[in-house]
């Protein structure tokens, strides 16, 4: 495992580390049955103060009008057989011509200076991966919490083994050369695809850059339910196979966070085993927050 990490570091060390004055930018939008939101997502990409050189919609086997609506905007659309978001992102990146890749989920939005703010870092620093903060919203308006770190500067990958450090999957940009050096998104993961990708990239590059400001809006579906819980442990084990650089303590921490996040969006008794898997929690506010979330789900499911 350690030899795999060493080989990857050697591969990444051969990539050019230099500031980018005016790189070409690709905006990639993975989409599945997103006819209700795809237009708004594309419009937010087209409303940037620094326009992307191309917008690519990777249509993940949609059965609605997603592809048709996207084509009306004159963007590149690639129609794919149904797989998952990771495969759609990888296929979008495969045809992308930009040096810097931005990803926008089909139900999320970018703030107008998103690309401009990211490129300012690429032109003054030498990051491989840039993360911003996320503002969540739902049908009633913006929510009070923020996703992503509130501090600016380069940080090590271990800072991402913390749920508070995660923006949405629309809250980052990455060098295309580095994207493929780590083989892109893991196509077999059913959850935490973006977190896994960020951590692998940050480890390989040596750091990631946190912008410390909100530039992404994440649409929260109040009725969403965690997917793939039956394969939760299998998913984590698959993810950890790609983390030869991580310590046992880091993997244990990530396993606990993942279990609690799954429990939070499941009603009792389905959440019980995930709460138990997370371990002792008497003084852990995050545990009690997730337990409360599960209780609320239980109450709502009975109404």
Task: Give a concise summary.
With 303 residues, the chain is α/β, with parallel strands linked by helices.
Written overview of the protein:
- It is a single chain.
- With 303 residues, the chain is of the alpha/beta class.
- It has 2 domains: 218 residues, Spore Coat Polysaccharide Biosynthesis Protein SpsA, Chain A; 56 residues, no CATH class.
- Helices cover 40% and strands 18% of the residues.
- It contains 11 helices and 10 strands.
- Strands 1, 2, 3, 4, 5, 6, 7, 8, 9 and 10 form a 10-stranded mixed sheet that branches.
- Helix 2 links the parallel strand 1 and strand 2.
- Helix 9 packs parallel to helix 11.
- The longest helix has 18 residues.
- The protein is globular, with a radius of gyration of 19 Å.
- The model has no long low-confidence stretch (mean pLDDT 90).
Helix and strand topology:
Blueprint: H1 2-13, E1 25-31, H2 38-46, E2 54-60, H3 66-72, E3 76-80, H4 85-95, E4 100-103, E5 109-110, H5 114-124, E6 129-138, E7 141-142, E8 153-155, E9 172-175, H6 176-181, H7 193-205, E10 208-219, H8 232-241, H9 248-264, H10 272-277, H11 285-302
Parallel strand pairs: 1-2, 1-4, 2-3, 6-10
Antiparallel strand pairs: 4-9, 5-10, 6-7, 6-9, 8-10
Helix pairs in contact: 8-9, 9-11
């Amino acid at each position: 495992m350690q030899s795999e990490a060493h080989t990857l570091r050697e591969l990444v060390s051969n990539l050019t580390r230099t500031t980018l004055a005016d790189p070409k930018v690709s905006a990639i939008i993975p989409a599945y049955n997103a006819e209700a939101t795809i237009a708004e997502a594309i419009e937010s990409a087209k409303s940037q103060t620094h326009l992307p050189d191309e917008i690519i919609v990777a249509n993940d086997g949609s059965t609605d009008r997603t592809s048709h609506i996207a084509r009306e905007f004159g963007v590149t659309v690639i129609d794919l057989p149904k797989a998952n978001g990771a495969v759609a992102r990888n296929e979008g990146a495969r045809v992308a011509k930009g040096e810097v890749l931005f990803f926008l989920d089909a139900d999320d939005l970018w703030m107008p200076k998103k690309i401009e703010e990211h490129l300012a870092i690429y032109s003054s620093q030498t990051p491989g991966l840039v993360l911003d903060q996320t503002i969540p919203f739902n049908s009633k308006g913006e929510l009070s919490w923020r996703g992503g770190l509130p501090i600016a500067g380069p940080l090590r990958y271990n800072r991402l083994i913390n749920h508070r450090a995660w923006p949405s999957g629309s809250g980052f940009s990455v060098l295309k050369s580095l994207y493929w050096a780590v083989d892109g998104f893991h196509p077999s993961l059913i959850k935490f695809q973006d977190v896994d990708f960020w951590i692998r990239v940050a480890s390989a590059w040596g750091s990631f850059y946190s912008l410390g400001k909100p530039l992404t809006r994440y649409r929260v579906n109040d009725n969403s339910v965690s997917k793939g819980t039956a394969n939760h442990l299998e998913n984590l084990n698959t993810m950890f196979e790609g983390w030869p650089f991580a310590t046992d303590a880091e993997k244990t921490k990530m396993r606990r966070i993942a279990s609690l996040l799954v429990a939070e969006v499941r009603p009792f008794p389905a959440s019980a085993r995930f709460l138990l898997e997370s371990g002792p929690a008497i003084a852990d506010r995050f545990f009690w927050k997730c337990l409360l979330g599960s209780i609320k789900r239980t109450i709502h499911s009975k109404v």
